[in-house]
Amino acid sequence: MCSGGTLSILRSDSYVDLSQYRDQHFRGTRYDQERLLRKSCTLYVGNLSFYTTEEQIHELFGKSGDIKKIIMGLDKVKKTACGFCFVEYYARGDAENAMRYINGTRLDDRIIRTDWDAGFKEGRQYGRGRSGGQVRDEYRQDYDAGRGGYGKTVQCQ
Amino acid sequence: MDARLLPEKLTVYTTLVGLLNARNYNFGGEFVEAMIRQLKECLKVNMYNEAVHLVRFLSDLVNCHVIAAPSMVAMFENFVSVTQEEDVPQVRCDWYIFAFLSSLPWVGKELYEKKDAEMDRLLSQTESYLKRRQKIHVPMLQVWTADKPHPQEEYLDCLWSQIQKLKKDRWQERHILRPYLAFDSILCEALQHNLPPFTPPPHTEDSVYPMPRVIFRMFDYTDDPEGPVMPGSHSVERFVIEENLHCIIKSHWKERKTCAAQLLSYPGNNKIPLNYHIVEVIFAELFQLPSPPHIEVMYTTLLIELCKLQPGSLPQVLAQATEMLYMRLDTMNTTCVDRFINWFSHHLSNFQFRWSWEDWSDCLTQDLEKPKPKFVREVLEKCMRLSYHQRIIDIVPASFSVLSPANPVCIYKYGDENNRSLPGYTVALCLTIAIKNKAGNDEIFSILKDVPNPNQDDDDDEGFTFNPLKIEVFVQTLLHLAAKSFSHSFSALAKFHEVFKTLAESDEGKLHVLRVVYEVWKNHPQMIAVLVDKMIRTQIVDCAAVANWIFSSELAHDFTRFYIWEILHSTIRKMNKHVLKIHKELEDTKARLARQHKRRDSDDDDRSSDREDGPLEEQIERLQEKVESAQSEQKNLFLVIFQRFIMLLTEHLVRCETGGIDVFTPWYKSCIERLQQIFLQHHQIIQQYMVTFENLLFTAELDHHILAVFQQFCALQA
Known about the structure:
Chain A: It is found in: Nucleus. Chain A is α+β, with helices and mostly antiparallel strands.
């Protein structure tokens, strides 16, 4: 009568599950990293426009709870916003609600993506792409007005 | 116990149990016993919503020939007899009546067929209970104060009308899917079980019953003239549909895509205007008083998912609903308007802010304090927070510019050359240069030393007593220099924390800091809110100072603006969380001590016993004091808030009475509903200090308008 399948659907909280992504620069074991991710109150937020402000992020993410800190992602060379940020909440439950209800919705007209982060450390606010921005902006072929136009390699052609 | 988790699929599971019982009598018996045990458990631990579904499940088992009808009637007789108990809260009796009545759509027919005399008696007892019960609480829970176009009925009254109509229709109920009908030939052969006599667990001090509700209705059959007919407000079908849709949300609230899919695949899609029911049920939850069952942002995202799944039909229903809600803003409860503002602005931000604003130009000719223009202003302000100022100017017609938000720029009084003659102007310049040159707290103190105190006559100002000019010059300059972003401002607060703490040491100092923050950032309410939050968390100001500031005359102009109340409620919540945190620390430390004792008791070695206890016991004593002091601060915060409300409202009432003008101005409606909101949003905490509030503030001498709010609140758990 009670199929395991149905029960697992009922207990499912898939928006809060860990994604496949693991930060390759993380110092520590895979196990440590996952342990930190599972109790983290910090979210990585991606696909922001370069023009999205801390204020807009605060307004949107404040809808799931009190925000402790926002750290804007910066181009390593230019020190300007490069389309990502970290949002840290005081309570894990508030971060979970952001994963459930803010992830995949729009900010500044763009669908943004949130993921668990093991915790901010100095240096992690910088893009890791060769040109200073995020890696994804190095190689992409499409034109994205909110993220500096074409990808860096395309621009250099 | 899937049925408990998926109550909207109740009849599928009861049919299954029925078939199993037909095959194996003992299984049926054990199952029923297990359910009864579970029901008792739920009632003991205040899980009343789950208990209702268990009762309904048991009722439907009568339809599946698992439980004998007379024994079910007997159980309901015990439920209804709770209304005869003396000295129990009304909400206790309410629940038992609700559990009885709400099962009748499923099993009324069967029970009436077998035991009509007993059922008539039960219904008549129910009717007389409903007639004599108190309904003082109703105005506080209604979303609209008007009865047109749809009366906002008390939930038991509505259910009673629905059951009466069902009885008149000879218990014919056509909406619920009843799979067991298809298996009648098997099921009617089954042996039935008798429910053991069920005594409702007695009322205890720890019992917390569900709060009463008001049924939210916004649609009727006239709203979708081309589609299937929407069941009437007193039809039992309406009750069943709404119950099931609420259950689906309750089951799947964490998974928005699943939730949307489950809602849209609710059976009966072509016989009922499902989209309308879904939208109505979602708004019912969003606007529920005191609070929605789930976090507000869930409903925004759920509606977006529904629009994605039904792009050809749902957005139109949603637009129609928005229009209707706008039309009825004049009588909508202020707290619900807040939620409407938050929902609508967030929703629009996901759809490029596309809206037919011209349809709402009627609000432009009204006084700006009236609900409709006020709503549009607040929505545009919130939309701006999610985008930027120019965007908002672009999306509304030019005629709406009077409602557009101010450009959120900082106002620096010492930055204007015309203000050269202001006292403190030169000090401000000095400070600016110093801070730009990375000065520390000490240098700031020494620059500020020369600032005269307009409040004091003699010059030997030894310490840093309250000096409003010092505060003004320092705070204006610093906030101006850090105006670039929230992070810049937070860094500034952190770097010069020492200066802030010293200048704001006194209560007047704290109040003045808040005043100056407002003067600098009055165009940017969002910045004010985050700065106040940070200043409380870093203990530059305390919660009581914020409360006093909100009720101060300087803020009277902004008193009805949404952001003010967001700040106040956020402040109260921080206070509440603080108390809980210290309380938890105390409990954890007590638990550690208990574990230590236990370990020692099991060891034979008692040499070091008392020594070990020392530090922990000291810690507990310290924490105990901390808890008491935090609770005292919490109680004081509410006292300040209530006192200020009473003063403000009394002033207005006296002025109106002596002037012979009508009390019910838009300001008054807003203010009294804000007072209600304090009670509703923080009811659990307020309950703890009820005696104090009743004795000190809400006495019989108070104007009856104000006292009514208090009495309605008391009625909620009476």
